[in-house]
Structures are given as C-alpha cells and as structure tokens.
Specification:
The chain has 161 residues and is α/β, with parallel strands linked by helices. It has one domain (2-156): Dihydrofolate Reductase, subunit A (3-Layer(aba) Sandwich), CATH 3.40.430.10. 19% of the residues lie in helices and 35% in strands. A hairpin with a 5-residue loop joins strand 9 and strand 10. The longest helix is centred in the first third of the chain and has 9 residues, at 28-36. It is globular, with a radius of gyration of 15 Å.
C-alpha cells in the first residue's frame, strides 16, 4: 500500500491552533482538493470534525469515542494499524491528512510527503514534525498569493539492498 502525507505549515512549523488553520493563502487549498480527490484520507477525530465531509473523498477516522457515524464514505478505527489493515482490501493508497499526532506517528511510515510551506510565521500550538533524513525533495514550486507559499514533494529514498 502507498502512503502519502499532505500538510501545510508556516515557516516556523505551525500547522494549526486548536481546530483552526491560522492562515488563508489563496490557491493553496486547491492543491489539497486536487490531491485528495477520490482518495481515502486518514485523519484524527478532531481534524475530521473541523474539516467536515468534503465531497468526493473517503475518510478513515481514528477515534476512541463512538460519536462518529459510519457511512459508505466514513469508517472509524481505534488505531492506525487497524485503519491500515481495514483499508488494505478497499484501496492501495491512503493520504494522511492530520492532525498533529497523526502526522507525528505517520511521517516516518509514508512514502511521499506533499508539503506547503506558508511564508509567514504564526503563533500556534500544533506543529509539523520534522521530515526524516531519508526523504529528499523531488519537486518544489513557489507561488505568489496574498500569502506566498511553496509546494514541495518529498520522496523517501529507497532502502539499500
């Protein structure tokens, strides 16, 4: 199974403050919409509740509570391992889409990281973990907007045989 991670962070590493994204960089959310279209998103409960159901996406929600109703596009799981095992029969690609604890746990397990760097410094409690040393930038493009941002694709280096 291929695992990708998608995140936006400020230059000082902040990805959020509670349930709010602390910026609106015009155009940056279009990247999220395009890359997650018809994909399974692995998210924590708080992230799921704050983003709501976006059209044409499916959700694997990590939660320890019973408050989320399962549907044909929403499945709940008590752990990351159970989510990965449970989705293996329905997809060959999962996009990790937050929040901070999920990123922290999954960043070393994914194959590809899609990261937008918002060129500002923001106050916030939730931070993006550091990208592991075995990842390399394979694409980078800067965008001019109301808040400039750079979109990068990172790929994990193949393990030596």
């Amino acid at each position: 199974m291929n695992l990708s991670l998608m995140a936006a962070r400020s230059e000082n590493g902040v990805i959020g403050d509670g349930t709010k994204i602390p910026w609106r960089a015009k155009g940056e959310q279009l990247l999220f919409q395009a890359l997650t279209f018809n994909q399974w998103l692995l998210v924590g409960r708080i992230t799921f509740e704050s983003m709501g159901l976006l059209p044409d996406r499916k959700y694997a929600v990590l939660t320890r509570s019973d408050g989320i109703e399962e549907t044909d596009v929403v499945r709940t799981f008590a752990s990351i391992d159970s989510a990965l095992n449970g989705l293996a029969s329905v997809t060959d690609h999962i996009m990790v889409a937050g929040g901070g604890q999920i990123y922290e746990t999954m960043i070393s397990k994914v194959d590809t990281i899609h990261e937008s760097i918002i060129h500002t410094e923001i106050e916030g409690r939730v931070r993006m973990p550091s990208i592991p040393d075995d990842f390399n930038v394979v694409f980078s493009q800067r965008f001019s907007s109301n808040i400039d941002y750079t979109y990068q694709i990172w790929r994990k280096s193949p393990s030596p045989q």
